[in-house]
Amino acid sequence: MMRKRHNKTLPDPKDQRIAELEAQLAQALALIQRLQKQVERLQAEVDELRRAGKRQATPFARRKWVEKPKRPGRKAGQGKFVRREKPAAEQVQQTKVARLQGCPECGGQLRAIREHEQYMADIPVAKPIITRYVTFSGYCGDCHKRVRSQHPEQTSQAAGAAGVLVGPRAKALAADLKHRLGASYGKVSEALNDAFGLQVSRSGWCQADQRLAKTARPVYQDLIEAVRRCSVVYADETGWRIGTLSAWLWVFTNQKLSVYTIRDNRSSDVVVDILGKEFQGVLASDCFVAYDEKRLVDWLKQKCVGHLLRELSEMKAGKTGRAVHLAQDLTAVLQAALALKAEKPGLDPAAFSQQAQTLESRLDALIAPQRRLKDIDNIRFAKRLRKHRPHLLRFLYVDDLEATNNQAERMLRPAVITRKTNGCNRTPTGAETHAVLSSILVTCRQQSIPILNYMVQLQQFGETPPPLVSSIPAPP
CA angle, corner 307, sides to 301 and 310, nearest 5? Predict the structure, then answer.
């Protein structure tokens, strides 16, 4: 109905209200339809993840049968063919001949006989070398002390009932198997017994590791001092256990050294304790809050671009319409920054600076506070990037700095496997032993230092091992 008021026809308020409600209903129905499609897609992903969780025995299995799979290995002409070199004559310790008198099938006489040769390199049957050390002790009439001689190759002065010891090379190998390669003490005991005839119990190897860690503690402290002087440090942490209590295994690493520590907390106290309050290098990490505590506000940092790209990929897969534009644009900027980093050695400094400034401006525009975003996930992600904005593209300007935190994640991967296969640590002493020995063993491997030789020198009285941290560069 239309009403006349002052000779003018005015719309009925009820008709206006009905039109507004119909428009709202149409919008609600459209929204419900979009949400139903999203729910169906998410439900399909959940079902797929549930099925994938039951395929842990074959995580890399194909989802369907391939009739004609690709032939394994490299294609003809790809790569360089490498074969073992024939040993020199002086390297051959023994020669064994297999005579052929006649045909092994019918016993007939052979002709056109040819000679063939094969070389086999194998490990010899190893037996423990038992060394008897004879020392002397006496009483000094001047200083009134009981003194005793010691051989430079000895690792202990124990005598009597405790005078039968395991040698330093065996202890070094056992520690490497346990703390770097992730074997359990039971497997270490079996392996060394089968290979070398060393009959040592699991508890015996455990006690040997604790004494070795006590000896190596000064080297561990030197590693901590060295990591504080590094220009770039990558940090990460993973869940751990000490007995029945929750703990965390931390790693602070770069290309030259690694420092592990196991703590009962996941706070910034660990970062400050290892790197010191006045760390001058660049700390590369993920966006975990412990690395952004107020005590670290003035530190130079680099947030892992890989983590951000993975989150953006998930956002692109879960968004539709205009909500997906932010994830697409941010992905393009970050990937362009990675490409620019790779091209930097061949670019003119002025050209590089101009391209880097362009990327900085594009990133600022995408996450600007005045930009109106309607999607809640986009709002949250843009806010997080504004929080970490000074630490997103620092890798462009520091040559030794990587854009991702992969270095720390790679150093944590063996610990994750150890946690899954043979558990963590039962006592705080065991946790400290693992942190000390794994730090030294991994650093030796990173610097191409023979692990067994270094650990033997560390244990013997007459040997001083070379320093592990002599070539660590200091930050500018």
Answer: 155
Burial class for 25, CB neighbours closer than 10 Å (0-12, 13-18, 19+): exposed
- The answer on pLDDT for 350 being more than 90 is yes
How many angstroms separate the CA atoms of 386 and 368, rounded?
8
Torsion angle, CA of 316/317/319/321, rounded to 10 degrees? Answer: 80
DSSP 425: B
- Point out which residues pair with 4 in neighbouring strands: 9
Q: In the chain, helix, strand, coil percent, each to 5? A: 50, 10, 40
The candidate with the shortest Cα–Cα distance to 250, out of 410, 412, 424, 419, is 412
Sign of CA dihedral 90, 96, 101, 106: negative
Tokens of 271: 């970062």
300-303/282-285 β-pairing: parallel
pLDDT tens sequence across 219-275: 999 999 999 999 999 999 999 999 989 999 999 999 999 999 999 999 999 999 999
Question: Which of 34, 54, 322, 29 shows the shortest CA–CA distance to 42?
Answer: 34
- The three-class DSSP label of residue 3 is strand
Nearest to 459 by CA among 213, 261, 94, 289: 213
Residue 421's pLDDT band (cuts 50, 70, 90): confident
Strand segments, DSSP code E, in 134-189 are 137-139, 146-148
The two counts, helices (H) then strands (E), for the chain are 12, 9
| Lateral strand order in the sheet of 258-263 | 258-263, 245-253, 232-242, 282-285, 300-303
pLDDT of residue 1: 46
Among 183, 128, 178, 133, smallest CA distance to 153 is for 133
